[in-house]
Every structure is written in C-alpha cells, then in structure tokens.
Design brief:
Structural class: mainly alpha
Largest sheet: 2 strands, antiparallel
CATH class of one domain: Mainly Alpha
Number of helices: 9
Order of helices and strands: HHHHHHEEHHH
CATH topology of one domain: Cytochrome Bc1 Complex, Chain D, domain 2
Number of strands: 2
Length: about 220
C-alpha cells in the first residue's frame, strides 16, 4: 500500500461532527407558547389615565352636539334660514346660552384657559352692547385680550341660527346673570338695527375693527 491510498489516521483529540450536532440539539430547550404578562405598574397607569381623562372630559367638554360649530357646518335637518322673531317674554337667554355657548365658554362663563375666553368681567360683554351684538351676529377672529390673557381663535357667526330676540336674550343673560356681571339690558330692536346695518358683511369681525368702531 502506497502513501496515496493509506487512510489518514484520526488525531487523538478530534471530535466527530455528528457528535457535535447531536450535543447542540440536546442542549436546545423545547419551544413553548404562553402569554407574556406586562408589568403591574403599566396596567395601573392605564387605569389611572382613563379615570383622569374621564373626569377631565366630564368637567370641560360641554355638550356633545353640533351647535358650537354650526357656523362652519349646517346641522343635519336644521333650518338655517332667518327665523321670525318671537316675543321677548318667551325667549330664555339661559336656554340659548346652554344650547349654543356652553361648549366653548362653559356654564359659569369662565371659558377654557388658552382656548376660549371668559365672558365674566369681559369688556367685550360688559361694554358697548352694539359691539357684542356685532360679535354674536358675525363672529370674531384673530387675537384678543381678556383679563390680561391673549386668545387667538375663531367664533362662528350666529346671524342665520338666532333671531333678534334670541340674540338679545342671550346678551342679557351673559351681561346680567353670569358671575358678577352687571350691565344694562338690551332689546331686540337694538339687535335688529345692527343686523340691518351689517347685512352685507361676509367676514367675522377682528379686534382692530371693533376698536375702531368704539372710537368712532
């Protein structure tokens, strides 16, 4: 037997490849299926967040209806044409306020900090009633300051949803019944006059425009 056909002897410390594979297979743990539970603190945090959120929404979100935004979208099935004026003694300013204004300005008239300005102690409410009538009729946009705080938003117009007596009633409610507000009452005749004077206006008022009217 020559050197080319002679089998190569195994080294002393050589380990069989099959033996290695067999060892790895036996060392691998059997797979299993099970639900991995999260930490207890995470579930407690979720429950606490839900409770706090429900409490906050219950106090601040107001009514869940489309009335607060009807200036942008017509409520389904609601007639937005000008209503005929109702007798003053049949209109409740508190009811109009609850259905149209509470969502933003809140039931106590304090508004929502950083979002909607308060109506209590506001110069726009307690000052010249013609200015307030214009705001309610055509809305208000841009920056304004109330009680030293700046707000920048958009109030929708109500000229197509409320008649003269309803606007006068809600004006009297916020001018005389919210918080410590005490101002003279107005009647539907004032609102009617302002409506006629501004009938061609298409845009919401801005603070500079209203200030210019107050100085004229």
């Amino acid at each position: 037997m020559n050197d080319e056909t002679r089998p190569i002897p195994s080294e002393k410390n050589e380990v069989s490849t099959l033996a290695l594979h067999d060892q790895v297979i036996h060392e691998t743990e059997e797979p299993f299926e099970d639900m991995v539970k999260g930490p207890v603190w995470f579930y407690l945090f979720v429950v606490l967040a839900m409770v706090v959120s429900a409490f906050y929404l219950g106090r601040h979100m107001g009514r869940l209806d489309t009335a607060a935004h009807i200036g942008f979208l017509q409520a389904s099935g609601q007639d937005t044409t000008q209503k005929e004026a109702a007798p003053a003694n049949t209109v409740s300013g508190a009811s109009v306020f609850s259905s149209r204004c509470v969502s933003c300005h809140q039931a106590n008239g304090q508004g929502i900090p950083g979002a909607f300005p308060p109506l209590v102690k506001s110069d726009y409410v307690l000052g010249n009633p013609e200015i307030l009538a214009r705001i309610i009729l055509h809305g208000l946009q841009g920056e304004l300051q109330v009680e030293g705080k700046t707000y920048n938003g958009l109030m929708p117009p109500w000229k197509d949803q409320l008649n003269d007596e309803e606007i006068a009633a809600v004006m009297n409610h916020i001018r005389t019944e919210l918080g410590d507000n005490k101002a003279d009452k107005v009647d539907g005749a004032l609102v009617k006059r302002i409506r006629n004077e501004t009938k061609d206006r298409q845009n919401s008022w801005t603070v500079p425009e209203l200030e210019a009217l107050g100085k004229s």
